[in-house]
């Protein structure tokens, strides 16, 4: 059968008809041959089974002669049916060849070539999608880090500011706390002269930026630092002026009362040491409560600043996540089935493939099923065993059995 443009030619109808007309006769002759062979063979089997086994050379020769005649009969049967079976095979091949010509699984067919183009395009789309996702992840990671760095920097500046302002507060509070009747005028004058001026230079001397970043470059880091510094410089200047002025005025307002309390304590000391001690304790208690109230307010403001920084960080991260989804979502979805295929790049890789297969599937199969799977390898090892000087497998799990056939 010849082909044109990879397609099989039409079968000769006359040839097909003539050969098919011989089929009944050929089948009848072969059936008769089989019947005669079986009848003659049954006679020999009955004889052998009657005595238990072949017990003489004459009987063995008779069986050998029968087998040789059967071989000749099978050969003749084969010759009679060969034109018919060859024709049927040719017909079958013609149909399968037609199907194969446009089958996707047929290498080189037009549909298979077109499928290859589609596969390449789908792979390209998936590769581009992964590249977009990777780039978007980098952008998101950078934006998240910027938000985190900004928030951490604000918290750092807040902590340093708290220590800075507490130092000034402690100084003013110390002037007030150390006031006595003897130094009252000096303390009052010192408090009054104290100026609530925020020193940015003095403040930044206590700032050490040890925040670790991975994605930002030095330029981006400096830009955020300058932005936060500009905001906080203005904020801290106003807060410092307010907090120190408020404390200063509060202490100055309480100075006359403190002097009165000190005078009362002095007068009571002259009358009774117990009354003087009680008055002093009450005064110190009032001062501690006022100081604690002021400290609580400062901590509230500090915590509010931290909460605000964290909220800004979360908002930035949420926006970065939103941008990520917009960037990675394609206009059209890729309709493709992605499957992993093994490409063995070294012969030793087949051993690892076999190990995985055997542990996951082979170990649960029966001996018969495993023999089917390993038929080619078993056949090779049998040929090796039957070769002169061939190697035998020495194992407790393998047994070599002699297979005897009479000639």
Tally of DSSP helical segments: 11
Element order, helices and strands? EEHHHHHHHHHHH
Q: Which structural class do the helices and strands define?
A: mainly alpha
Widest beta sheet: strand line-up: 1-2
Fraction of helical residues: over 70%
The biggest beta sheet, please?
2 strands, antiparallel
The geometry reads as rod-shaped
Binned strand content:
under 5%
Distance between the termini: 40 Å
Q: Return residue spans where pLDDT drops below 50 for at least 5 consecutive residues.
A: none
Task: Please state the average pLDDT score.
Answer: 83
- Based on CA atoms alone, the radius of gyration comes out at 51 Å
Number of strands: 2
Overview of the molecule:
Helix content is 76%, strand content 1%. With 407 residues, it is an all-alpha fold. β1 and β2 form a beta hairpin. It starts with a strand and ends in a 21-residue tail after the last helix.
Summarize the model shown.
The protein is 76% helix and 1% strand. By secondary structure, it is mainly alpha-helical.
Question: What is the element layout, followed by pairings?
Answer:
Blueprint: E1 3-4, E2 7-8, H1 13-21, H2 23-51, H3 57-101, H4 110-177, H5 184-193, H6 200-204, H7 218-271, H8 273-328, H9 348-360, H10 367-373, H11 375-386
Antiparallel strand pairs: 1-2
Helix pairs in contact: 2-3, 4-7, 4-8, 5-7, 7-8
